[in-house]
Amino acid sequence: MKLKKYLTTKLIVLNFFNFVNCSEILTKNDFAPEEVSVLELDLVPTNDLLSRIQKYEQNVFVMEEKMKSLSETFNQLELKMHTLIKDNMELLEKNLQQIIDEKIANINQVAEEKLKMISNAKPIYNVNEVKCSHNRLPKSCQDLNECNSNIYSLMVPEISNKPLPAVCDLKTFDGGWTIIQRRQDGSENFFRNWTDYVEGFGNLNGEFFLGLEKLYALTSLHEPQELYITLEDFDGQEKYAKYGQFKVDSNSTDYTLTVGKYSGNAGDCLSQHNGYKFSTKDRDNDAEENKNCADHWKGAWWYNNCFYSNLNGLYLGGKTPSSKRGISWCKFRKYEYSLKSEGSGFDTDLIFVNNFGTHVSTHDQNVA
Fold this sequence. Notes:
Elements: H1 2-28, H2 33-41, H3 44-120, E1 150-154, E2 164-169, E3 177-183, H4 194-199, E4 201-202, E5 208-209, H5 212-221, E6 225-232, E7 238-243, E8 246-248, E9 257-259, E10 262-264, H6 293-297, E11 309-310, E12 318-319, E13 328-329, E14 337-338, E15 341-348
Antiparallel strand pairs: 1-2, 2-3, 3-5, 3-15, 4-5, 6-7, 6-15, 7-10, 8-9, 11-13, 12-14
Helix pairs in contact: 1-3
């Protein structure tokens, strides 16, 4: 616009100047008509320039209008974009909240169903059914000597801040034994992997193995510990083995076994495994270089090369002339016979208040 005004002003001045000059020339001089025409022709370029400026002015105006229109369009698009983003965010937030609410509802429903199942299920054990005078959970089976043999909850902080279910034998050798293993009818699979043996498996009302990690914790609390093993064949013949020391080391040593002096009538078939690591079908820690004893003999034990006892072998039901993969104790029915029942337990010296026992019952106790 400034350019337009400037050029227009210049043209007016120029035209006026030309007009005045022409008038003066015409006044002072006598020109013929054809000469006057020549002077008028000098004004043509000026008029043409003014026409072009006016055209440019129109173009500038048109462009200004277009810019104004584009600016308004841009403002409208920007407003629409903000509105669209706001609407989408609100919709997304609403959908996410709906998904979260549905997930929470599903979780609550599952939790209610689980609680209902638990409340309706028959408990494996019930501490309240045990008639004892304790107002607190015992730390060991030795604390329960005035009670009957049963399934109890032991509070052992060294293992967990939660109660540990355990079967206590309060009759054998003055009681105080915590049962750590039982074989009695072949209902439980003992040919298991490393993790199962570390954590323990089975049922307190059936066959079970308490777990290597629990054995480590329990046998590390006080020393010495005692180990008591009962054995029975299918003819009803019973034997036992007792060891004056029993300890299972930590996971960092692959739960190395330590046993002490033997006594009993079953024969000593565990001292030969003293100092050896525990092996399973997927964790070969034995001293045999040519095979994995656990995998080959279908068990899990503190194997050397390979065993004198294999109490976690297969439950084969008596004589097994073609196999040595059963529940074996070298000096009781030897290797070609799979025993009917077997149990092992440990107990601390009675001078300790907190003591533990391990005993595998042949009839009525189980561990989960």
